[in-house]
Known about the structure:
The protein is of the alpha/beta class. 22% of the residues lie in helices and 26% in strands. The strands form 4 sheets. Strands 3, 4, 5, 8, 9, 16 and 17 form a 7-stranded mixed β-sheet that branches. Strands 12-11-10-13-14-15 form a 6-stranded parallel β-sheet. A two-stranded antiparallel sheet has the order 1-2. α4 (167-177) packs across α5 (195-204) and α4 packs across α10 (304-316). The two termini are 29 Å apart.
Amino acid sequence: MTTPHHSLPVRAWGVTATAQPLEPVTITRRELRADDVSIDIEFSGICHSDIHTASGEWGEREYPLVPGHEIIGRVAAVGDAVTRYQVGDRVGVGCFVNSCGTCEPCLAGQHSYCVTGPVPTYGQPDRYADGDITRGGYSQAIVVKEDFVVRIPDTLDPAAAAPLLCAGITTYSPLKHHGAGPGKKVGIIGLGGIGHVAVKIAVAMGAEVVVFSHSTAKREDALKFGAVEHVSTADPDFAMQWHGQFDVILNTVSVDLEIPTYLSLLRFDGALVALGLPAAPMQVPTRLLTSQRRTLTGSLVGGIPETQEMLDFCAHHNITAEIELIVASQINEAYERTINADVRYRFVIDASTF
Length: 354
């Protein structure tokens, strides 16, 4: 039964023009449709892609732009056709809020690979006829189609679980796809907001995990999260030591790396998976791929069924992100600190402060 919950203004934080600081804004959420869930937001994580988008690096948007795709809250109302959720349930929303639903990836539950493109949680027109611009989780409330809502297990701390809606599924999906588990050796490049979650998940899957990082500052953290070794890539001989040893390497950083160096670390049939989005194209000697049937590939976030699977996995293994909880007035400072890698490891906003 639909609880009365008409189109309503909500407080949010967003960007009102390209590359401007975030500030308080008021936005309107759509009226509840039959298949919609209205969510009162409790926590919203800050992802580096929020910063890229807000700064205008990824192109002009319609303003106000309200970022945020790591959303956790409580169901406030449901549409008449909603069957999986009821008022009071704790739920989450990740990177996408709609897709075509009919293409091969969508039918396989891999919504992020929708052939015509999934609808991001913020900054683009939705697929509905009214074409409203999606606005994200830096707000008091959001209305989302039921099919793009996931359940947050009760045992997970909701604030620390928020980054799992992006960092968690971004790493769980390729680790699962490439067979991370007992007897496999996994490399993680970078120990940031995504990388630290990747280590925890890969360890919980049973893999032997090694972290590659330019700095040695996070060595103790890497070992605490379960890695067997933390390798400084500033050492010019590091690649020789680890040559041909890894089944899977996740590249979680968005800087231009010497990709051939990391390909050389792969064993027969190993895969180097790009998760970050560096500006420059990759250049790879073909022989590095052919000689050991190595794979250079990439991965987006997973679909909705896999996101739920990841959350249940993290609940079973007691995995959450390492976070710093902030209030809304600290968002711009948090953006600067994220750019300067001055956070261990993710900022999450207390939505009650919007």
